[in-house]
Batch of 4 targets.
Target 1
Amino acid sequence: MKKLIVLLFLYCFQLPVAYCQLSYWQQKVNYTIDVTLNDANQTLDGTVTMQYYNNSPDTLHFIWINLWANAYKNDRTAYSDQLIENGRTDFYFSDDAKHGYINRLNFTVDGQLATIENDPKNQDVIKLILPHPIVPNSNTKIETPFHIKLPYDFSEDGYINHAYQITQWYPKPAVYDSKGWHPMPYLIDGSNYSEFGDYEVNITLPKEFVVASTGELQTADENDWLANRKDPVFQIKKKKVATHYTAHKITHRAIAPLPVEPAANKVVHARFKKISFKQDDVNDFVWFAYKKYIVQTDSALLPSGKNIRIYTYHIPTENDYWATSISVIKKNILQRSEWLGDYPYKSVSVIETPSAIATHTAYPNLIVVSKSNNENELARSIEQQIGESWNGGTVASNDQDHLWMRKGISNFYNERYHQTDSSLHPTCSSGTKRIHPDFDSLLLQTVIQEKRDQPIETASGEFSTANTYLIADIKAAEWMRKLEHDLGEPLFDSCMREYYRRWQFKHPYPEDLRKTIEDVSDKNVDSSFALLNKKGALKNEKPQNKFNLRLLPAIGYNNYDNVMIGAAITNGNLPHPKLQFILTPLYATGSKQLNGIGQIKYTMRPAVLFQKIEVGINGERFSTKESLDTAGKKVFENFYKVVPSIRFYFNHPVKSTIVSWLDIRRYFIGEKLFNSFEDITDSLGNDVTYPLSSNTYKRYLDQITFAVDNRRVLYPYDYQLQLQQGSDFYRLNITGNYFFNYIKGGGLNVRLFAAKFGYIGSKNYDSYLYQPKLAAGNGTDDYTYSDYFLGRTASYSNPDKPIANQGIATQQVLIQNTGGLKFRFDQYSFLQGQSQNWVAAANFNSTLPNFILPFKNPFRLFFDIGTYAEAWEPNPQTSRFLYTGGIQLSLFKNILNIYAPIIYSSDFNSVLKSDPNQNTFFKRISFSIDVQNIQLKKIVPVAYQTLVD
């Protein structure tokens, strides 16, 4: 025995490049599955036999079983929670009929009935209690029938329009290794982490279906049928492609018969067929069934002499995007086989899913892509997923714990491949063309700069939506490039080829990759691997912000300045400069003056308490009224403001959907106003008022605002507490919004508003401007000049000016800092619900069902109700409660909102009846231009929202 140990030691010592894996062991599970697809009710019925090999040194008394079909059972699964975190509610609000589940299980172990225990945390995990232990180096047979209700197509599994993606279906034992059991719920990433084994799968289904599957087809009749079947709907347009890789010519040809084993089972019913597949050394088995698939096939000869069969299954289309798909697949397989080692299986299939959900996924010897918009996008999708046949499929690490080992390593080789194929334009993960070739890197630097990044070695379920891509894909690939640079490309390639050779059909951990690299390179790489657990840049350097001055055209408009033309001058860039500015000078063609907007801010990013602190100053200048003087010359009122501020953004966990901040600022406002007038009788005998002179009045306003905005997709809310103070008054505003999602989409938004006003010292009429009101305000109520108005002073109540200052601008309303009742009654001040004490209001806004119109319904219903202090005093001017309600049209992501009141308080109704000029349908309509809704968070994808706060 001692001699044996010595010989083994000498063997490992003499071959340092070889890996002496005496301590490594791995379970194996062989499967025989018989399953029938019921196309009428989207179900599967079958039986599974598992031969479980216990290669561990431990005696097993139970086996954890993953029942991932139950991930779609209801809205209380880990998968459902993850979709909500990622901004999707379609599954959460779906009908029970669209849910999926697995049941009718009845486990036996070597013929003995076994019991199961439910996992208290996850509905898609159970514990199988063995009737007898499984001792080391032995195996046991586990059998059970099963019934599956397939879910609707929410991601990578289920059905849509009688097209089937069968990916999470049969019971699978969880991985058991030297670190113990790894039972896990189904999540978007991690579904490939199962034990390797050999599969024999028999599928019974209606004979019209084309089946694309893991493994090799064993049914000769089925292969003949595919070879002679006519393509449905459209024939694919073939291109003549002559692509070469070394000495191996790539060609295209129609599907031809394959050498297959004699069919064991042929037709089982006139309407059904039974087809069989086999595949060894895979950790999963998936299949796709669709009646309309067009099938192409060819082969690729690797430099080693291995021949790979290639299949594509795509949806009928009038374009020819798929004509070159075979050559794309070949080029990728040949190139990656050179870098890492031969493609491991006998065949590869590329399947286009009819799913409406973007899906790009790799399974053993099968990859899935979504519909593409062009040939380049399809090529990009194919090469991204084929790479995971090596890292992720064959070398199958635990995605849920070490997502970067699949995504990051694969992305590294994707980027390397792009350098060898100039025909591929870089694209974002969504498939759209990048604005900048280094866009991903700039986004990553920005996340790091904002201290919103996470270590590469973060579990997939702990990543924020943005970091799942930016860290697990982009930063991990950068880490690989750094490792390549440190080792040198030839040595690095040798390390990775050996890593693939040692760990194909196994489950390596990060330490296994490290050991392989150290064995081959004879170098210590601890410092490199330590970076996997750290935040920040990979190198000890700060992101480089190159000064980048941008000049962009700018245009503006209001009723007085008319069209304004100018430029936006900014140093805005990614990552964000500490000192940022944007200056927008505008020449006004109406007032013939220079207007504009500008902002300068400096950002600090402390390590604790605050995510960042912004100190800045902004200002603007525009006209606010137009008139004629007695000589017939145009004269204007205008304003300017200068606003120094400091804003503190509070820290929240990276995955949090909450943004909160404290803002302190002072408004310095100067207003040039007409201050003397002369009445002149015109030729018609009407008295017209002309301004004679003007004066500039100055005021200030101090403001402190605390805001919380929870951007979760389900029941989002926000609220603000704001204290304002001037020279002789104070005002407290409280605003809150809560959105109640509807099951069928859309929802009800409830806005609550309250304001308290008080004087500091004696009452001052000049403070009238700051008093809160129930009615939605006009331009003069925007006392901080924070909103955009077409005609800030336009009003029905001033018809005696030489320029009427009326028109459509008189119907614009201000919602912010008012009760929000959608009516303009400028000439009836007693109807405004204005108070020297307090006001309170509630605004309800509901979407309408989308099925009413053939496009997304922009119409809504609104109802506003409120009260104010003076209404509760003796002999009030109005009823205690005022209300309005009607139809709202919301356009441009709720930036422009048009309100048509249908019901309203008797107080409003009485005045309208006495004023026929005002009581017309058109003049009762009002609108708001809500500039506060122009936010990048409503435009950019959810994945990047953390970058724009």
Target 2
Amino acid sequence: MGKFKLDRRTMLRGAGSIAIALPWLEAMGHDKLAHAAGTPAKRFLSVYQPGGTVLDKFWPSATDPTTSSILTPLAAHKAKLLVLKGLNMDCAVGEQHQAGIIGFLTGSQQTGSPKDYSSYPSIDQLIATRLQADATTHRPHGSLQFGVRWATGKSHGLLSPINSATFEDSAKLTPLPPRLDPQQIFTDLFGTLEPGMGGGTGAADARVARRKSVLDYVDKRYVALSGRLGAADKAKLDNHLTKLREIEMALKTGVVSSSTCKQPTKVDTKGYNPTTGLMSGNAGEIVDNASDAMIPTVGKFMMDMMVMAFACNLTNVGHFQWTDTEAKHTFPWLSLKDHHHFYQHDGGFQPVQCEKIAVWYSQMHAYLLAGMAAVEVAPGVSLLDESVVFFGSELGHPPTHEKKSVPFMLAGGGGGLKGGRMIDFGGKSHNNLLVSIMNLFGDTRTTVGDPKYNSGALQGLTG
């Protein structure tokens, strides 16, 4: 009798649509272990921070991507970090800040008047459409958008071209506002770890009973399979069975967790008002000290939830927005009493204060990447390894609103993305970067957004 072979895609199926994947086994051969360089990325996260940067403090002095003062906090992740210099946001035609945030993910110029939005969808939504069309990657949420201290200043807490970065992949191109309430996000996504299934206590009991019956059924299938495996595979299978029973025990408390999917620690955000923007003043003269002081706490909590939303397969596309283009909130934890827009140009360009803010954002980016790197989705493969994270802003040089050499970065290993470097593209359109990101997901398109700002995908992102 020949050696027993097992397809690596094998899943043991129970009643209805529930299926439980096997661990990797030697009987499956050796083609699974590493995340292959040519494998399309599986998850996308865009991260927006406002107001450009202090350019001479941002760009590294060498190819090492974390040698500058602003990027030093990211040193632990430099192997997964690609800094992209010399990319101009040529599509940002329109109001100084609005045109930038609209073009950031769309490659589109602002249509018509300053009250108008984008004429093309944003790449996060293009990627969501692509991934949701693949039955093997379908998630309850096509995408998730989170925002911290959003809609300050002139937008007065309401959706506006000055705070909108993501746009539907549909004929309507509807702008998608971020979710703002951290407690509601936690309840909706992680209250039971079974979002979207609805029902009250009786329904929850029925779900538990059904899943327990499926686990019992699958357990018997595992036992039957075990008799056909070698010693090493049997040991792996026994460990997997133990984890399966841990899931069953967790069902009794209403929380289904695993080594990958865990309910994030719930954080007390008392004092933070997610809708404080509704009370904002045009010039940032109305200050909400309590909410401003909570920004780091709320931001980390939201990043934790975004990471777990990926890990729990609730979504594979996200957008994280620290604020809007006005950023008219204070930074009490940095001992800065005025708002970011004041330090950019309202009070005259103040590079020391802007650098201090930019360093703090880099610290937050490092926190996010550490969270993604800590989640193992397969032996030796992290969530970050399979993902593409896109960091960017709406302009490059704060005092002039210039959008040349905008501070863009990519992180992760999805699609074969290769970090540990800085690449200078010498003034190419950032639309080409958007094309390249789409290509990392297996999409072969050659333009994104307005075709006149495209000249082809960037070379060298995958090494």
Target 3
Amino acid sequence: MSCPRLFPAVLLLLVPAALDTAAAQAVRATRADRPAGERRTLVAVRVQGAAPRLDGVLNDEAWRLAQPATGFVQRSPTPGAPATLRTEARVLYDDNALYVAVRMDDPHPDSIAAPVGRRDLSGVPSDWAHVMIDSYNDRRTAFRFSVNPAGVRGDALLSGDTGEDTGWDAVWESATRTDAQGWTAEFRIPLSQLRFTAGGADSAGAPGERVWGVQITREVARRSEVDDWSEVRGDRNGFVSQFGELAGLAGVRPVRRLEVLPYSVARVTRAPGDGADPFYHRSDGAGTLGADVKYGLTSNLTLTATVNPDFGQVEADPSQVNLTAFESFYAEQRPFFTEGADIFSFDLAFPYALRGTGFRDDQPFYSRRLGRAPQGSNPDSALWADRPDVTRILGAAKVSGKTSRGWSIGALDALTAREDVRYRVAGPERSSMVEPLTNYAVGRLERDFSGGNGALGGIATAVNRRLEGAPGLEFLPTAAYLAGLNGRYRFGSGRFEARASVLGTRVSGSTEAITGIQQRAGHYFQRPDAGHLHLDSTRTSLAGWLANARVEKSGGGYLRGGLYAHARSPGLEMNDIGYQRTTDRVLQGGWIGYNHYDPQGPFRSWEMNLNGWNGYSFGGERLGTGMNANGGGTFRSNWGLWFNADHEFPALNADVLRGGPAVAAPAYTAGSVTLITDDRKVVSGRVYGGGWREWESGGGGWNTGAYATVRPSGRFRLSLGPDVSRDRDEWAYVATATAGGNAAAPHYVLAGLDQTTVSLTTRLDYAFTPRLTLEMYAQPFVATGHYAGFEEVVSPRAGRFGDRFHRYGGELSLADGVYGVTPQGATAPAYTWSQPDFNVKELRGNLVLRWEYRPGSTLFVVWSQGRQNYDDPGSFRLGRDFGRLFDGNRSPPTNVLLLKVNYWLNL
């Protein structure tokens, strides 16, 4: 990589460092800043006598003796300015719990926003009181406890100084009350729900006295105002690192806890089927028992285990039609895996898409591998089959926490069951393995240094499958291992941060398994024009590596910027327990931005960013060069406007032919605009639209949609999200066909694809009380595609777009859904492929009644429904297609009714 290529990227970082504008300096000059490193201090007072009663009335004698915390400062809309409404907080403690009282004055108590909803309510304007405790005092990790005036609670684990995991749930209590002066909130946070070290002081303080980090925050919805007790500055990196100190905690000892959450599930499924199928039952009932366990191994390390887990209450995944060779990525929603997921995160993503292939979701541990659908196929001879939908997780356990010496520790182990498909050919029932007994393991370790400004760590993963006696599963590796190191360091008074990571992978198995990986999407060792790649069908193992680095200026004024570098070898393979898309990449990129986080003119805040990137294969092929401009802002009216514009220059696409030669791809331009309305109104939402154009081929498309929310009361919310897209791809992949089975002379068939996608995402939420809620999610979805103008790749790197392909003429025929190409003089097609047109109609949805009948214990009643229909491939008619989706005869539904109850035991 030459110096001239690096020089512009270096300027992207040096310019923000050198140019801190006079406007930014003027803003800072108006502030009465505390000296660098000085933190506000709040002294907690030990309860003498009776603990305060949680009723929202702050008249207990204990509160009168506590030290008041005042002087709250705005984070928004005017950073650094005094809060417009007075807030006062007090903190008490005893041997069992931390108590916090917050008095929030408001001259218009009838205007306090107090919607009712389920725990961790989001997306709805509300007043809030937040208490955040950094009990490790590492200035990177904290526990957030929140309550709104209606008594709705929320909690989260804050990590990495900026990350938030709302999947973390604690068992704690609160009480609120609204009166003529405003509203109040009382918190009782059991020490068993916090993590801290045993013995000694955590920071400077009296002998035996602890010092924790603390932040108390108030949100005033109608003013879009966020006020903090310890000022949070937009020109400084991080969030937890800007907390104040909670002192005076003498004689507080960590509580080792044991929590058990046994559960029972009853499920009835009613599905369509063939009455001649011996495995079919119109109604099928099932029940299961299981349990979750949390045990404090030490004062700051917790063992979490689950036995025979069931996640029937989790929202359905959205529908999509994936025409790429890469696997779809779905976000994790299962509670056992979302809670504490931050400790297993490992930074390796390159932030820019390269010819439509991005790495934002790539990660060494993708928890949805656990419990995935069985990977084996049904026997070809099977007339009827009873196949499991998912692989059962027999048990899983994880240990997580942080020690007094700054070590963050995470370890997870899970065992998934062998799964068999039962089938019949003729005669007695038979079975065949479709997923082997598999063990998954993940270990994560990281050590902070320099007061939390830096860290060094590592990760290791292992997958081991029992494949003995598993015919048909030879394509799976028997073992897959990964090990990596990472580091980060914040410098320049916290304005700059550097991050780097490196990892290696090794998979082993049969020659069939390793050959399959080499030929799989993202590797394509068989590419005929890639001299740096070589397919070896005798290999029984494959190794690869990845390296990632970035340095950014993200604080210290309005100007920001960063540089990125990323490389992944062709042999990298993380997909047994992680998630990755393509490999064989050497990438670099950079950005410069202006983030005006203070009000200016009509804006409350605004920003502008310019990005550039470049990418090559390990063989020196240029696979992408692009640039991007994006930005926007929030107006004082609380409306927002955002835009994004991309341009990719001509480059090679090494993935489009799925193992064939790289094809010269034309330049394209894409853009989008989003308008967001004031979410404080009864009706709010966003409207967006965008499009793309491939200049030489003439391909292009557009997308538009909206997401509207109606809130007629504080208990009810209805959201509708229609989305429509139309695309014309002039060189969409269809098939790789061979004549007479001659794999050495493949024909790469492409076509023009007209695709239409329409969906309507619907959500309805109703809260009877904060502990009894009803939620509905449904998404009717239609996607159609019609292929025409079939052509064959003949000169993939020709200078003109049209010269790269041969358009079929009279030699192309269609009979019984199969296309064939008959050479001149021949009487039968030399090679064929199936008609690729499609019309996918799906409905996925569920209705969940959730009742937290006692702290930590919940009853779920869930009804879910799914529908599918594939009539009329290649043809789109909105009314007809949605009508057939909801026609019970054409699209018979699968209904599932589930009852799940758990009971929290604190032993």
Target 4
Amino acid sequence: MELSQTEMTRATAASGDLLSEHVRLLRDALSRVIADQLGPDALELEERVRRMSHEMRADPSPDHARALRAFIAELSIEQLHGLIKSSTLYFSLDNLAERTERLRLLRDQDWRSYPAPRGDSIAAAVAELRVHNVPAATLQRWLDQAQIVPIFTAHPTESQRRTTLAKLRRISDALAAMGPVTVNVENSGVWLPAERADLQTQIEEQIVSLWQSDIVRVVKPGVLDEVNNGLYYFQEVLPEALPRIYRDLERALRESYPEHAWRVPALLRMGIWMGGDRDGNPFVTPEVTIETVRMLRVTVINNFLETLDDLHLALSQSSQQVGIAPELAVCLEQNMEHFPELSAGLAERRPREPYRRQCAYIREKLRRTRDYTQTHTPQWSQDAPMPRPGTFYYHSSELLDDLRVMESSLRANGGGLVADGALRNAIREIEVFHLHAATLDIRQHRRRHISALHEIMAVAGVCSNYCDLDELACRSLLVQELTLLRPLIPLRLLVYSPETVEIIQTFRTVAAILEQLDPEVIQSYIISGASSVSDILTVLLFAKEAGLYQPERYSRLNIVPLFESDDDLKRAGEILDFCLKLPIYRDHLRLRGDVQEVMLGYSDSNKENGLLSAKWALYRAQLDLTAVAEEHGITLSLTHGRGGAVGRGGGPANRVIMAQPPGTVSGQIKMTEQGEVISESYFDPTTAHRHLEQVVNAVLRAGFPEVSVAPEPAWTTTVEQMADVARECYRTLIFETPGFVTYFRNATPIAEISRLRIGSRPASRGNSNRIEDLRAIPWVFSWNQSRHTLPGWYGLGTALEWFITRDDAEAGNGAEGASGIQQAALELLQTMYQRWPFFRTLIDSAQMMLSRTDMGIARCYAELVPDKTLAEAIYRYIREEYERTYRLTCDVAGFCELVDPTSELQRSMAQRTPYVDPLNYIQLELMRRLRAAPSGPEHADIEAAVLLSINGIAAGLKNTG
């Protein structure tokens, strides 16, 4: 069913009206809280600052900006703190109202389009495959090998506390239940006036609680705090959201391919880095990893014990009324032998209810599994005091067997509908989460491996100068050690430096966890900064020494090179090809099912070379790696190490997936979910379902050549050339312009962000001030705060201008000829934008960041640089590139402005700009005071206010790092 233009206009207007009502309701509630908590003068101050900001935006004259800055400069720390807090809470509430309205609109779209599916739904993707004549058998084979894994990472870009998120969710629930604020007979729904008043009171109660709570963290979180924060989503959100995704997929397959008997495996699962990612984080120790695994398992067990309550209620079938399958009878007899005391009680309470007796046995096994998990400490090379087989669950398949025996028994005895209800959901829950919620990846930097191996080989007398060997010699030595039976590392006494011992113990801890706690929880070891074949073989050697790999017998870890730099991305295919030609590595891969994981780093590649060059290097690397995998007959599984911001590979997940090279998304795909992306995309079960629905839709569409769009050769040649120009422009500014580091360190709040307590990981690798050693997260975060947003677009404008004007010389002296050539070049870029998802996503991402840029405010941050001549010169470079990029991206996209003035993004930014601008000016004033007096009676209060302003601006721009 299609909507008429009139209906669409009416729906859009109604949506805007309802959103405005909700925003007004929340803003009025917040105003009452401010007046109550700080007094009417504080509310008047907040309203005055907002009025001045509105006037400045309506008439952007220097006089208005000076007046606002001068007014802010006269305020006390206490007044500034109140302004920051009120704006920060406003943004959080506004974001919540927008999220609630988006979900309501999606529901409306489902109704309006019915029976046709919504365009980004799973049903739409499956229907599109049917339209393109993808056979059912082909799709079934794709499903059988597909693996879609969002990975929650420990990167510190979540500026909101878990406490804040929980309170916001309560407000969201009340707001969604309330519906329209303006009540009349037609729209009052089921709520009486008193009931609606109760909902408003609940909202205001939570706002008061938010106001009286710490918005920023007082104590820097530890690694296990990060794990616990991540587990919130596995407790409160994902157990409801993921089963819905599977039901959507199963329904879509039946509707589009009714002739096929579908089998839907657990293709969508979750991963986690928290507690396993060691790269640059000295606080992730073997003990922390063990505790992380415990927390993961206990979370799933506790969740499933609740699921068993539903099963117990549902499975009340009596043996007096219906029979059971012989397999279930045998299973019950075995359980009676394992649990005689429990069996005696069940014989009295449940003599005729075999399914409930089976649930009771499952519950007892889970309790014992939880007890064992919480009390046993894995010890490498030691026999564990494992509970007796049959009395607990070591592998998730054992629990699935106990559930499936009930399922088959129900189906064999007229209970198919019952089997398809709570029991089917329970089986799917374990298929997806196993007994550990998410697979835990281990990550460490290549330099740590090399340093440790150098020391180990020297002590063993194998090689005294391993670090000095060239690549060919390293490969030869590593292959030799991998084929030898004798151990390189002593079993007991480790006479090495603490750093080397930590590397050894990490691998041994992984082995012990897999043998004694959970054989499935850890599957991949990621090598940060991988740049050679020897980096990969080194990890295989450590795995062999820990008993994780035994040639021709077993290999228990996927070895995953993470290619990040431009040079490494260019050589990624060559490195993989050489590895696959080595018999010892091919043996390892065969034992891993001939699946090779490779991770691509978006953040550091962007920091090194800028947006366009990094995007193209990643695109090209995927093509190279896919070609090598096809040549060697293996399956390639790519992990996309994306961040939240565009400058770190961020953006809407479905568009990013569709922008990948055709043929590289074969169903095996992983992607990191970081920081504020997690809290935004997995805020509640409905939001998580929406996000994962889009991901599965995109992977399905991108996974088949019949649907994906292949670029024309002229398009790839064009981007290849522009990438070189953009890279040179970017690197000239960042790495070759004298004084740029000084500008960055002074014109952004990088120093203050480094003190923000939003993660356990240090901001830099080591104590260096070099840009190369700074992590990508604070790099992007700092530029976004100061409204430069430089990592999300710098260099693109120069590249576009170069391509459009490069052939002017061929036109001779005729202006008309030059104009024609430029028009043809622009039209080619416009065609690429319209027809090539990669290029469209690139331009759209840059425009999204440009819409958050404000060069007027950025100039104010530039004034913080002591050397005014230097500040003016570098600011001028940045502003000129901004203006160039703004103009040319609009030309390429065919827009007069960066974004459609009627779009949600434009409305959202217009709504919140009068609040963001004052926060930037407040932050500037506080940074001046803090830097002018690094110590003093007000230092702690000023620093606290600066940190709060960072949170506020991040919430206002809906972006951190």
